[in-house]
Amino acid sequence: MVTYSYDQGKLDIQESKDGEDTSFAIRVIGDDPQMLQGLKQVQRTFEENQDFDDVLFYAYPGHEYKIIVQQQYYDDFVTELFKARLLDSVARK
Amino acid sequence: MEQQAYWAIAIFLVIYGLIISEKIHRTIVAMIGAILMVATGIVSQEVALHHIDFNTLGLLIGMMIIVSITAETGLFRYMAVWAAKKVKGEPVWILVALASITALGSAFLDNVTTVLLMVPVTFSITRQLRVSPTPFLITQIFAANVGGTATLIGDPPNIMIGSAVEELTFMAFINNLTPIAIIVMLVYLPIFVFMFRKQIHTTPELKAGLMKLDISAIITDHKLLRKCLIMMGLTILGFFLHQTVHLESATVALAGAFVLLLMTGEHKMEESLSRVEWTTIFFFIGLFVLVSGLVETGVIAQLAARAIDLTGGDLVATSMLILWLSAIASAFIDNIPFVATMIPLIQEMGQMGVTDLEPLWWSLALGACLGGNGTLIGASANLIVAGLAGKEGHPIRFLSFLKIGFPLMLLSIALCSIYIYLRYLI
């Protein structure tokens, strides 16, 4: 199982099951430009690859994002969040 | 016929067979065919170069550069999500909206590029609504081929015909082909709705989720978007005016592409040039030289004479023969080599006394473009969409597509027959 931590003053991340996939609800608190930029970077990474529905991004007003992640890309997605410095730590338990 | 003509036919048929078999990449095969035509002395290198239509190549390269830069801005995703919200997230209407955007996009961009831009956003919208993407993808295949028929720059056969015949300007294509493309699309859309309406239901909650999407966040680079829109607009305006200003369409497209690169800066150049589909460009070069062997040895002239014998030189019969033959052939084989062969044949008919070639050109364009809807292998866009759908776990099978595609293709060609007859032949 993958666990992660993040700065709760800058981000709010809620994870839930969405059929066979995992759905992330991510809200950037206080319009932090570094967080917003990081999230855009993660989005670009998955939109530019050859797989069209591995990770799907939906943007809502107020810097809220819904992200649907296919099960086999869960680890990749969390790793990309970490690489973009949205997460402080990632661990497998 | 001379010995060289038999060699030219033999090389042409072997190469054509290899292209159809798809055992080796079509570009490699076409280029080897072209080299054989030159190496065996059927055409000299100078004559071969003379037969390469640089207007077709320039137009394709220019548009590929413009589209590759514009695609980065998120414009096409924005348009699709905006349309989905406008129809309040209703899947049936989203199907109609996405098909219409695809048709419009294909009229001004290459079909393959258009579907490559539409497929990801289709997966995104259908996943959110939890409906199958397959009906949406199938309708987009048809829409891409119909939309591409509408203009000179919409589909490679039209680019080739427009380049070969000086009188057939961008406006001539709009005036003659856009009306019938719109008619075909208007006939197709209710059929799509009727066919797929039961497969694409969603819940009010999922529709509400789509309605809340922030479309302004979709555009990733507003500054770049402005530059792209300005240059796309000016390029399309240039196509409308190209005859008035005495410029070939390739000059217009290349001007648009390189002025856009000038505006975006050098850093975009390497990337955009690497995204040009060089395999397609070399495929065209190979075909032009391959067909030049048939032209120079008089084979095309003989074929034209036989066709005139068959129809008695009657314009109605010749037009219908070209329309239906092009459609059936294009459903099963690549329409680009077919059109490359037919262009000199029709030109030869003109030299043999057929005075009004216009209905023949439109018959060729309509047959070659719309014929691609007949089977899954009929057009590159079909194969691309099917390939992407299969990869994402939603395969579109050859036979299931044939059951829908072939009757719809026949319907469109029947409509075209009536259109050509009423507009040009009575």
TrEMBL record, chain A:
Q: What is this protein called?
A: Uncharacterized protein
Q: Which organism was this protein described from?
A: Paenibacillus phyllosphaerae
Automatic annotation (TrEMBL), chain B:
UniProt cross-references to InterPro entries, sorted A to Z: Arsenical_pump_ArsB, Cit_transptr-like_dom, Diverse_Ion_Transporter
Instruction: Give the keywords, sorted.
Output: Cell membrane, Membrane, Transmembrane, Transmembrane helix, Transport
User: GO CC: one term?
Assistant: plasma membrane
Q: Where in the cell is it found?
A: Cell membrane
Q: Which residues cross the membrane?
A: 6-21, 28-45, 57-80, 92-109, 177-196, 228-261, 281-303, 315-340, 360-389, 401-422
Query: Membrane topology for this entry?
Result: Multi-pass membrane protein
Citrate transporter-like domain span: 16-367
> Which molecular function terms from Gene Ontology are attached?
arsenite transmembrane transporter activity
Per the record, the similarity remark reads: Belongs to the CitM (TC 2.A.11) transporter family.
The name under which this protein is listed is Na+/H+ antiporter NhaD/arsenite permease-like protein
